[in-house]
Design goal:
With about 575 residues, the protein is of the alpha/beta class. It has 15 helices and 26 strands.
């Protein structure tokens, strides 16, 4: 037997002192007896010869003493916090309460918490540890801490909409003090099964309490944004995907949409297959688009999802005097570009000899004699490698440059130079006969993509899933990130912990659960080997609560003593 509030030596010493104190009190107790005197003058002599308290004579009322001792020792042991002694299994017992989206249905989390509290109480304080499966695998009870702290720390704790981290946490566990480790898991059967498939050496997993599967579930598992297939710069397409388990599939009219908190109806919806819808030509105005199931179910974590649409306005371009007509025609037909006066422009297109506009990126048309390479890109040092790897998206390739070199009779190359301000310098001769660049497919790609790169459109995330990293921009999009995001070293290193609203580097982000495994798994029956343990009877559940039993025994003994005292069978 171990004790939570005192050592075994202190408890034993206290018991000895209690027994000795009760013995002394029993010996000092007044002994009443009837003495008949023939005369009152003999009273003083009788008191002297037969005092009411005598220590040297025979000990009387043994059963009364034992009854009082049993009551006092029961109260003393209950105050010391008795706990079951360590068995042959000396391994550390770790209790893990999963607080992920798996446990958000109904009373799953509350039931698991009650089972946890009952099980932890039956393990010695020095051999137990309790962990909460939240975003940080927070410790709830460390070895040696009293059990009363656990219930207090669990007050107000709820499961949240994020994937379970139990598998990752379990993979990092190692035996402690060489005695092995036992992990008691309170959560979902599918999570326990995956973790059990890759157990570290000398680590045992016990599914202590597993949530019962739902009869059925439907949820949103995909919500992403991509540039509009129509080619409109200020529009995007939105993909919505749903799944169903044990229930009919979600019909297109079973989804509701809201934009910036107001009910919204998409103008064009295209079905891509079972459960997959494409919302076409949605305005890219930076709004928050939310999708939800019109008919909810018992698992609400996947019944709605949201995403922040990009802010894609037309790029304002100013054309200087002398700019070739081919460039002017391209700017006029490109839906992403809008020709404006120089004072309102984001990007300038000018000749080399024209007046410069400090602080504005520019596409500069130069003479071939002024620079050795046909294309010169100026960018920050940390952007040059990314730009070099994506020159083909600008319409530049070795085959294209070789063809231009043959037409112009000189080498055509690409240079990257470091500069605080983005700019592109290109030979003017490429837009004049006989280069043939104007008639090639590469020319409109080069001009359009160069102007987009120079304008540096606002950063946006096409997808935001809880428990995953923020998607890393690819290609030229990686060079259009928000400066605050780049300064903080964000990108694929940004972990999105749970569903909700976030502020990253000045950019608003909407994160949703979007987990196909969870949406389907909550309605799947657990494996037979990992079935939930049946509820324990009350007597079995209280078997480890020795303090409760001792207090109950003390109360019963007190009642017995009172009964005997009332009947005159105790002194």
């Amino acid at each position: 037997m171990n004790f939570a509030h005192a050592s075994l030596a202190v408890v034993a010493g206290g018991a000895v002192l209690i027994a000795a104190g009760l013995y002394a009190l029993q010996r000092l107790k007044v002994r009443r007896r009837v003495v008949r005197l023939p005369a009152a003058m003999l009273w003083r002599q009788v008191v002297r010869d037969a005092p009411p308290r005598v220590l040297a004579r025979r000990f009387r009322y043994l059963w009364a003493y034992l009854l009082s001792l049993a009551i006092a020792l029961s109260l003393w042991l209950a105050a010391a916090g008795p706990q079951p002694g360590a068995t042959q299994d000396a391994r550390m017992q770790v209790f893990y309460l999963d607080a992920s989206a798996w446990m958000t249905a109904g009373d799953d989390f509350a039931d698991a918490r009650r089972a946890l509290l009952a099980d932890v109480a039956a393990v010695p304080a020095a051999a137990r540890e309790v962990r909460l499966g939240d975003l940080h695998d927070s410790p709830l009870l460390l070895p040696g801490e009293p059990l009363a702290l656990l219930a207090r720390r669990l007050d107000g704790v709820r499961a949240e909409a994020h994937p379970s981290a139990f598998g990752r946490w379990m993979a990092d566990q190692r035996p402690r003090d060489g005695a092995g480790l036992v992990v008691h898991y309170y959560g979902a059967a599918q999570v326990a099964r995956r973790a059990a498939a890759q157990l570290p050496p000398q680590v045992e997993l016990i599914p202590a309490h597993l949530a019962a599967p739902l009869a059925g579930n439907r949820g949103i598992v995909n919500l992403g944004v991509a540039p509009a297939g129509s080619g409109r710069w200020d529009r995007v397409d939105v993909l919505v995907e749903t799944v169903a388990a044990g229930m009919p599939a979600v019909a297109p009219d079973g989804l509701g949409f809201a934009l910036d908190g107001k009910q919204w109806r998409p103008s064009a919806v295209r079905a891509l297959g079972p459960g997959r819808l494409l919302l076409q030509d949605v305005a890219a105005a930076g709004g928050e688009l939310r999708v939800e199931l019109r008919d909810g179910d018992d698992f609400g974590a996947d019944d709605s999802a949201g995403i922040r649409l990009p802010q894609r306005q037309r790029i304002k371009v100013a054309l200087g005097e002398g700019v070739p007509q081919a460039v002017r025609d391209l700017v006029a037909v490109d839906p992403a570009l809008e020709q404006v006066a120089a004072a309102q422009a984001q990007v300038l297109v000018r000749l080399q000899e024209s007046a410069q506009e400090p602080g504005r990126p520019a596409l500069v048309l130069t003479r071939a004699s002024s620079q050795p390479s046909a294309f010169v890109f100026a960018a920050a040092q940390d952007e040059q490698r990314e730009l070099a790897d994506n020159l083909q998206q600008l319409g530049l390739s070795q085959e294209q440059n070789a063809a231009l070199a043959g037409q112009l009779g000189r080498a055509v190359g690409v240079d990257l130079v470091a500069a605080p301000q983005r700019s592109v310098a290109v030979w003017r001769e490429l837009f004049e006969p006989p280069s043939g660049f104007v008639q090639s497919r590469a020319m409109p790609v080069f001009v359009s993509q160069s102007l987009r790169w120079l304008a540096q459109p606002p950063w946006w995330s096409p997808f935001a899933q809880a428990g995953q990293a923020l998607p890393q921009p690819s290609g030229l999009q990686a060079l259009s990130r928000h400066p605050a995001l780049a300064a903080r070293g964000l990108g694929d290193a940004v972990y999105l912990p749970a569903a909700g609203h976030y502020q990253l580097g000045g950019e608003r982000l909407e994160v949703s659960l979007l987990d196909r495994g969870i949406s389907l798994g909550v309605a799947s029956a657990p494996p037979a080997a990992a079935a939930t343990r049946p509820p324990r009877p009350l007597v079995t559940a209280l078997a480890g609560h020795w303090a409760t039993w001792l207090l109950l025994a003390a109360a019963l003994l007190l009642a017995l003593e009172w009964h005997l005292l009332q009947r005159g069978r105790m002194p």
